[in-house]
Amino acid sequence: MPRMTRRILFAAFSALAITACSAADSGNAQNGSSGSDEIALTDITLGEADAPITMVEYASWTCPACLQFHSDVIPMLKTDYIETGKVRLVFREFPTPPANISVAGFALARCAGADSYYDVIDDLFAAQTNILTLAQTGGDIEGAMRALASSYGVEGNAFNDCLANKDVTYAIGESVMKGDSQGVNSTPTVFINGEKLQGYEWRTADGMRTLLNARLGDAAAPEAPGATAE
């Protein structure tokens, strides 16, 4: 669970200017604009606005502990709670080292637009191991990031423009500052209806299900897989 320091936070704010993809040095960037017409610059949510539970997750796609949570808990959460109107999820970027790569990925997710944002986040987590290995071995990170982004129409000049877009940088910085103001110093950190979760049980599907069901009450809580009615 990587711990964040203010030095890393400040590095995250400025990371788009020094991304591994070298967007700031590219001659293709045009006045810091992006090729996307619908950049997501505010909180992007999943679920119904009137869901009884709002879950805010601060996480980084380059964080191994976040990958575990994303792999083990999020699929259950989407199926049993978000799609059934019980939970609204707010994912907030909280970049972890390598900060420049982490921020670049989040920028591309925002440039893909709100409708594709969570799909890009899923793909970034799926690519985590490969991209971190490339970072450690001096591999072609830019190629991997371009291939991922192109699936969502962020390609060519739009790729470079996205990473040079100051509005995108500001939006990610706002997400980090929100976490900083709430005392977030590690990832993943999750809040449920404003309450910061403690311990580690919530990082498992069963633990999260137990926690959510306790807050929803028996009438609203979904049954665990394999459960039979009395």
What labels describe this entry?
230 residues, 10 helices
Structure commentary:
This protein is of the alpha+beta class and 230 residues long. It has one domain: Glutaredoxin, CATH 3.40.30. It is built from ten helices and five strands. The chain has a five-stranded mixed sheet with strand order 1-3-2-4-5, with helices on both faces. β4 (189-192) and β5 form a beta hairpin. The longest helix has 16 residues, at 166-181. The radius of gyration is 18 Å and the shape is globular. The N and C termini lie far apart (41 Å). Residues 1-9 and 14-36 have low confidence and may be disordered.
Break the fold down into its secondary structure elements and pairings.
Blueprint: H1 6-14, E1 44-46, E2 53-59, H2 64-72, H3 74-82, E3 87-93, H4 99-111, H5 114-126, H6 128-137, H7 141-150, H8 157-163, H9 166-181, E4 189-192, E5 195-196, H10 205-216
Parallel strand pairs: 2-3
Antiparallel strand pairs: 1-3, 2-4, 4-5
Helix pairs in contact: 1-4, 1-9, 4-5
